[in-house]
Amino acid sequence: MAVKVKKAGARNKSKAAAIMAEINSAMKFEEGDGLRLGSDAYFTIQRIPTGSLVLDRITGGGFALGRHYELYGDENSGKSTIAYLTMALSQQRGNLCAVIDPEHSFDNERFEFLGGNPDELLIQHPETAEAAVGVMMMLAGLMKEQQIEVITTDSVSSLLTTDEKIKDPREEDRIATQARMMSRALRRITAVNKKTLFIWTNQERTNVGVKFGNPRTTSGGRALRYYATGRIEFRRGTKVLGKASKARGGKLVEAEVEVGRWVQVRVEKDKSTIPLREGAFVFNHRMKRIDPASEIVQLGLEDGLIQRSANGWYSYEDLDGKEWKANEKRFYKMLNSEEALRDELVWAIQDNSASGGEIESDG
Question: Which among 19, 103, 303, 313 could bridge 158 via Cys, Cβ 3.0 to 4.6 Å?
Fold first, then answer.
């Protein structure tokens, strides 16, 4: 007679499930607070797209829900734009989002321009950092059917502690009040958080007294960099120039003006995917957003979809066998104006990102 032998994995899982049920029953945990099995779907990373092909690639498919991400670096490099885009895409999937805005810089028209719905966005202008933390804890702890998917704090540098608010500005500052506040806040927020994504934009300051190494540091102490699953650095690169009519010396002339900037992004830390990935895109001032053509060209070249000749011409052969070929300026225009071409390349790039991202070279 054949004897059925249980697999060791199934036997161990059964023992673990029994222990879990016994302890959860004895402790009378609230839903979600007790023990779970490692195979629980709760521990499967769910991601939300960032609105940027480049950032989706270097973050492993987007920001991981239930985690903290810090976006820091140069001013006017697209940090807030990425946060707005992420929330807009979350809303488009039927989810709720919130903004903690100590800078009082939220622009509802810009948010709507990027695809968001201001009528369904919760916003707080906190007078103190402690008030902001209280709201974040309540929002992050909401039940699943009311869950806030994304909470953006823009920015950490503007959070004002109660100690700093009530003190006479002529008095000497107390040391590290904001850093101590952030350490306490992140412990509390993380403890009650279910699956809410926290995006923190941050600014840099000069670390006075540093003679060797990098003199720049982020605001709010070190707590955020420790709690963050991902830290993404934004650096402004070379200018993108274009022609515009300008009055010079009483005459109208064609002059070169800055119409955009290359922005270099680097994943300084990421515990949910491969860290230290890099990418670049153009922030187009005239378009008031990331130029999609710049991302398509960058990733298309990396994936071998787009070819660049020695004389600077770009070419791509689509699925119907048609060849698209032009110099850099005209090729960018084609990508922005030809929807079918753009959609085909975006689909191919996203498919490559989902299957592993960067193309490995033998060299």
Answer: 103
